[in-house]
Specification:
The protein has about 220 residues and is α/β, with parallel strands linked by helices. It contains eight helices and nine strands. The two termini are about 30 Å apart.
């Protein structure tokens, strides 16, 4: 895993956070019991750049937390309507958070970032909300409860367009994925089952990046 010194060096050589993102980052660390769940500066910048490269029309995020990654991706969305055969549509990011106590804070920062027209927040269980979203996804970001990663993947893949991407966070799970299977807790088992399933799924190609806590980049063939 990356040393603290190398991580600090990487952050120092990454375009600085915007004022809103830096404020949200700080508030999350001051107010949340597990602030490490935040995507953070480097990963947030990576997600924004992925959006800028792919220029998606419809994005789904499973697991909002305090809104950092949703806003980072929202800031990368095209500023004008995306042209598709026969019509133009405004790019939209749907994000799902299970904890209703986080809703007011998320909406506050979406407003401060000027993204109220681009980010749609859903509060509740993702497995119940996703089937009701009548969309074809260009990109899906999974960063929610680890035992359900594989269920989320199986649920969204059929509605991901051909050539679309899924990005899954925490796929190295603090190095626990290399431990003895019999001693793994349910979160670690959830991640390893997801990793193994994706790696053997002939419908996709995948790349595991040892960035932060591990990112799996998945492209639908």
């Amino acid at each position: 895993m990356m040393t603290d010194l190398l991580f600090e060096y990487s952050e120092a050589h990454t375009t600085p956070e915007s004022t809103v993102m830096a404020k949200l980052n700080r508030e999350t660390h001051l107010s949340q019991v597990y602030p490490q769940m935040l995507s953070g500066h480097i990963q947030g910048t990576f997600l924004r750049m992925m959006i800028q490269m792919l220029q998606p029309e419809r994005v789904l995020e499973i697991g909002t937390f305090t809104g950092y990654s949703a806003i980072a991706m929202g800031l990368g969305l095209p500023s004008s309507p995306v042209s598709i055969p026969g019509k133009e549509r405004e790019p939209i990011l749907h994000t799902i958070e299970v904890n209703p106590e986080l809703e007011n804070g998320i909406r506050k920062y979406i407003h401060e970032a000027g993204l109220e027209e681009r980010i749609v927040l859903h509060t509740g269980k993702a497995l119940e909300i996703i089937p009701d979203l009548d969309e074809t996804w260009d990109l899906v970001f999974i960063d929610a409860d680890k035992p359900n990663y594989l269920q989320y993947y199986k649920m969204v893949l059929p509605r991901l367009r051909q050539g679309g991407f899924i990005i899954a966070d925490n796929v190295l799970w603090d190095g626990k994925v290399t431990g003895e299977p019999a001693k793994m807790d349910k979160d670690t088992r959830g991640i390893t089952e997801f990793n193994d399933f994706v790696h053997n799924d002939k419908r996709v190609e995948n790349l595991m990046l040892p960035v932060r806590d591990g990112l799996m980049i998945i492209r639908k063939l």
